Every structure is written in structure tokens, then in C-alpha cells.
Fold this protein.
Amino acid sequence: MKYSYKFANLLGTVYTKGNAIFLPNADTLCSPVGNHLTLFNLKENTSETLPVTTKYNISQIAFSPDCVLAIILDEEGNSYLVSLQSKSILHKFRFQKPVSCIKFSPDGTKFIVCMEKVVLMYHAPGRTREINPFKLIRSYHDVHDDVTNVDWSDNSLAFAMCSKDMMTRIHSISPGQYLKYMFGGHKDEVVACFFESQSFDLYTVGKEGALNVWECDVDFDFFGEDPDTAKERKSWSFKRLAKHYFNAEGDFNFVTNASYHKQTHILCTGFESGSFLIHELPGFNWIHSLNMADHPLSSVSFNSAGDWIALGCSTSGQLLVWEWRSESYVMKQHGHLNNMACLDYSPDGRFLVTGGEDGKVKVWNASSGFCFVTFTEHKSGVTGVVFTSNGNVVVSASLDGTVRAFDMHRYRNFRTFTSPNPVQFISLAVDGSGDIVCAGSKDNFGVFLWSMQTGKLLSILAGHEGPVVSLAFSSRESVLASGSWDGAVRLWNVLEGKGSRETLALNHDVLAVAFSADGATVAVSSLNTEITFWDASTGVQTGTIECKYDIACGRSELDRTSSKTKAEGKMFDAIAFSTDGSSLIAGGKFLNICIYSVEGCLLVKSFTVSQNFSLDATEQFLNRRKMTDFGPQALIDTDVAKVSLPGVMKGDMCSRAFKPEVRVSEVKFSPTGREWAAVTTEGILVYSLDGNSVFSPFEVDMDITPDQIREKSKLGQHGVAITMSLKLNEKDIIREVVENVPHCAIDVVSRHLKPLYVGKLLSYIAGEISGTRHLQFYVMWTRYLLLHHCSMLKSRWKKVLPVVNNLLKYLVVVKEDLGSICDRNGHQIEFIVSMSEHPNKRLRLAVQDSDDDSGIGNFSEEMA
């Protein structure tokens, strides 16, 4: 149970590519992030990443109208039928070519797949009892170029498809009435086409910025008629009523995407310049326009109510939800433009801070997954971020030669630390008191020390002969450990200022240094794929972990050797201790993250970083299909991604294709001990123990059963019942027993509880207090447990510290939630109280009778 971490969420990246769409009849936005699928609940302000991954990056998503099934397609044509209820893959199917569009019919019986010049119609899975969920009905091959978009009519008896051949085609699928109509009217490829609500009238949007309005002469229920009675009507025709141009309101370049909400008759159009326009149809009345980014918009979609618009930009990784009626943001999230480099947890585990190569420092809510503040003061890549011990300050180091301190209350940069001569800082550490800030340089191989209070440079620690790549402070005393490429780790007593206290000599370059929670042990990762443990007080080596055979390297497309014989990248660049100091987590430029036992120096568990083949170095074996007569196919430019020259907006003939390589830049355990996070190429992977349904009893015997526990609780033996339920370790049983204890007996029961079970009961309360209705009841339990067992908790602080941090985390969350509710209702409560004391009895009766909004009006009439 201690190491049964499961994938919990993906942070730091909100959108990669594909269509970001809303769930039907829900205020939840579904965004493809690499080969993951993230759901943003905009009502509850939370995010969730489904435990479902595809083989390559996701390109298209489609949901059934009843919101039970989803079809996910990757960029290589692999499709996955996913159940949204069990959040598991039900079926896999491979199309021969990449799919450009997929859409369910409104009645949920069919779905259409567009695959280059071919349009395929399938029976929707789950409607009939079939062995193969994807049963092909019919294929259409009458298109001369790639199909760009499709749309269904409201009665699901006809669909329209537009393509790059500047034509739009409408097909009828009513039995016995397979009719077809084709028309043009555009000078460039048709980006999107939309049926009008309860009609066959059509709108087509061209890439050149033109909108055509087409009127159909056939009644909407024509295809529902009996074929025998409709024999005389073998054709239908369309007439263009109007043609409008988007560029009339300004220079918006080419249209990249469009979405239409049929009930509200609102059209939203995205452009190559990063702007979007909102019009009301069919009159083409301009409502609003806004610039979202400097890059083309790749996704535009409406929610079911039609008041929210989701806009995604794949180039900048930006995702926002715009409420067009109030002209305000519902959600505005922007990941790091380039790769993330570092992260750190806040002391209570509620927040995560990340630094990226784009020079931005972002703070994320670990529970909701949203970024709530971004600092952009750095002018170059951020190499280190650290929370101070009180959690009120974030310190960051950058290659621009500055170390900055940010206030987490006012969200401002209040300190900037610089060196006498320009240097590049590549490592960072802050002491336990938060008064001393240290940064290691890449140029002059020195360690710079500043005062947080004054901002002055205190000292420059010299002695290393290579770049100082890692710094760590001891929590027990002001001892600083610095690791360098010169093959040495130096321990400095910062307060004494007498040079290095101890030098730990290694035969290879040092890559990472970490202190244990008690400050007694130093862990060092070196270039020879070893992790060594040293006693911080004596400088004696206490243990060694040989990691050579634990590292699983992938084979890059340009590698000439196999992954087993590959030596490059087989090293741990990042290591971190757990809160209790019993475990060490390590990661690097390879496929897995390893957790080691410090006491036994053994590998406990290994986690695979990614199985996304859209990233480089994820394959284990050579794929001979990617080899040509001239060498690897990766040497030939493909449309994987484009890197343009600086300052060139379009028309860059020197753009090159590249494939990002999988790697881990930083790993950290949460102070609560319940989760850990890793900075990877795809984002921040968060693995947690919460939510696992693993049965893990504690000192259980044959006499401890649910019936025996309930019997003890009914007899009033609450202490015995709680002890037995904690041994059985079933959450429902513990809840039932604890909540049966009378509130007047909590003091006595908690006083006589054995010290062995205090930590387990506090751990249960920490997980329960955030969602329970009996808040005061559990707060009383917390108060008496801490009051009666304070001395015991101090003596066993190593094991109890993660539990206390976890409890503090949820207590602070509940406090903030209650505080916000009280702030919103404070004026209303004061008003009601003041009116209850009014001398006029008639007014008091009016206030008491006003239970809804209409009561306020009655009260106003009484005052008048």
C-alpha cells in the first residue's frame, strides 16, 4: 500500500492539438493533451485526466449524445472506444490512414469518419448486440481532395461534408431516398459547413474568409416520408441567399476553424492571426471580436447551452473559455511555451510551482489542476524554483543572471538578487528559515549567498572547479551541500563562513544532491549511474545503489545501437527524499522513474513515464519500416512539428521538423507523503495514493470482522471498535464507527487511544474532513488527538510528519472554502440581523416571510 501509487492527474499542459470540445449536456470541457484526455469541470473548478492513453497524440474526439461513450483517434489512425462511466477502453480499431474528422449523429445511431478523400459511415456501438462495435454501413468516394469537416441534420437523415476541393456535398441516408447534391461558391478550401436548426438550410465557411448562406427547397420532414409517396420528388435544390466576408471588419487573415450553435444561431470563427469573430446568423450581425494569441486557432467549439466558447491554440498550448454574452473569461489557462525544467511543492502540499525554458514561473493548484498566477519577470529560461518554509515566498533562479523572490499574497516580485559580474544560475536552494538564498553558477563555478531581508550579497563560496549543478540545504542546521561537475560534493557551514566543512570526493561528475528530512543523510547521483548515501556529520559513505540495470532507455530514431547497449542518458538527473526519509525517487532522460528504499538500497518500484510514440526515444526496438536506403526516415523533414526562424511569421522556407524526446527534468515527493510529481516532456505527472481501492489491513487477525466491529460499537466500547476498524483498514467501517461516537465522549476515547493508532486515525480524518458534512465533529477529533498525544507525535515526527502535513492541507482548504462563503454572505447576514432588531414589528415580519427573491420585493413594499 505504501508504494501503490496510481496516476492521478496531468498538470502544466492544458492543450496540445486536436479538437477541444464540451461534453454533451454538461459544463465540462474535454481537451486532448498529448496522448491523454483532460476534463475541465468549469462549474466545480476542477480538472481530471482520464487513465486512458493512446499510442500517439490525440487528434480527434467525439462523444455520443447520451455522454456514455467516446471515440478517441490518434494522429496515426488508431481509434479507441472509451466508456466515460468506467473510464476504460472497450474496443480498439485501426483505420488505414489518419482521420481528419469524426462526428456522431444527433440520434446517436451512427457516426461518420473522414479519412482523407474517403467518408465512412458506421453503426454507433452499444445500440445493437454485435461482436464488432464498428460495423460499416457505407463508404463515400466522390471527393476529389481531403475532407475537412462534416455536419449532421437534426433528424439524422442527411449529412453535409466539405473538402479542400472547394466543394460541399450533401448526402441523404433515408431508406429508399439516397439523394446527393453538390455545390461550390468558394475560392479556397471549405473549412466548415453547418445545417440550420430543424432545416436543411446550410452555411459554408471558406478559408479565404467568406460565408455562403444556402436555402434548401425541400421540407425538413421530406426524408421521413414514405418512399412510395415521395417518388415524384427525386431531386432537391439549393439557392444561395447571401455571401458575406469576414475581412470586411479588419484584416483577420485566413480562417482556420469555425463552430456554429444551432439553437442560438451564433457563429464563431477562428483565424490564422489568433483572433476570433462572433456573428449572429443568418443576418451576419457582428457581435464581438477578440484576439486570443499570436498564433493560429486550432479549435473552436460551443457548449450545449451556447453561451460558452472554447478556443484552443496548439502552437502556444493555450486554452480559454469565453462567455460571449458577458464578454468575460470562464477559464484562461496557458501552459509553458517551451519545456518545463523544475518544480517544487509548497510546505502544505496544496500548490505546485514550475519554471520553464520560456522564462515563466507558474503556480498550480495541486487539487484542481489550474494555474492561478504566472510571473513573467525573467528574461531567460528558469532553472530552479523553491518554496520557502512558510510557503509565503517563491524563489526562482534563471539563466538571465537573476534570482527573484515572489510574494504569494500580493503576487509581485519584491526581491531581485544579482551578482557583481554577469553569470548564469543553474541551481537554487533556500535555508529552512527562509533568510538565506543560494544559487550555483555555470560560469565562474561559485555559490552565491544573499540575504532575503536586505537583498544584499553576503558571500561567494569558491572551491568548485566545474559548474555547480545542484544545491540542497539541511533542515537540521544551516549546512549547504553543493554538487558540481568536478566530481565533488562540498558541505558548507553557511553561518560560520569558514569555507567548506567537508568535501565528499567522487570519481565521476555529480548530477544531483538531496538532503533527507532529518538532515542526517546526503544522497548524491553521479555520472556512473550510482546513487551514494553519506553521513552529513562525519562525511562517511553509508550506502550505494547501483542503478545501471534499473534504467530503461528507449531507442531514438537516430540511434545506431540498441536500447540495452545505449550508454548515453543512463543517469539520474533528479533525486528527492520522501518526507519520512525512507524512500528516494529518481528520474532522468529515459523512460522510467524509480523509487528506492534508503535502508535496504534496493529498487522498490518503477513507473513508466510515457508510452506515447509521438515522442522520441519511447520505442525499445528498431522499427525497420522507418529505415530507408539513405538512413533513418527521421532525417527527412516530415510534418511532425515546425520550428520557425525568429521574427518570421509566415513564409519561412527554413522551418525544420523535430520530434520531442521523452525525459524527466525534476521529481519531488509531496510533503503530505500521499503523492509525488515529475516534470516530463508531456507535463507534470502526478501519482497519488488517494483513491486506491487496495485492501491493506494492519495487524489483523481472525476475530476482527465487520460484524464484530459493529457489535463493539453498539455496546459502547468505542475505543475497542475504533482500534479494530483501523486494523481492518476499511474506510467505510472506520467512518461508521467514528461517527457513532457521541461528541461528549471524544475527549475520553482519544485520550485512551493507543499511540500506535493515533497516526492512522489522523490520516483517516485528513482524507475525510474535506468532503464531510460533520465538519465540527471531525475538528473536535483533531483537537483532542493533538492535545493528548502531542509529546508522542513529537518523538515520532519522522513518521507522523506526512500525516500532519496532509491534515494541515485539507484543514486550510476547508478554512478557505468556508471563508469565501462567509465573505459572500456576510453583508446579507448583517442586513437580516439589523432588520430583526428594527423597532417596527411589521418590518420584522416582512423579513421573516421573505424566503426567496420575491420576498425582497415584498419587503421593499413594506418599507415604502
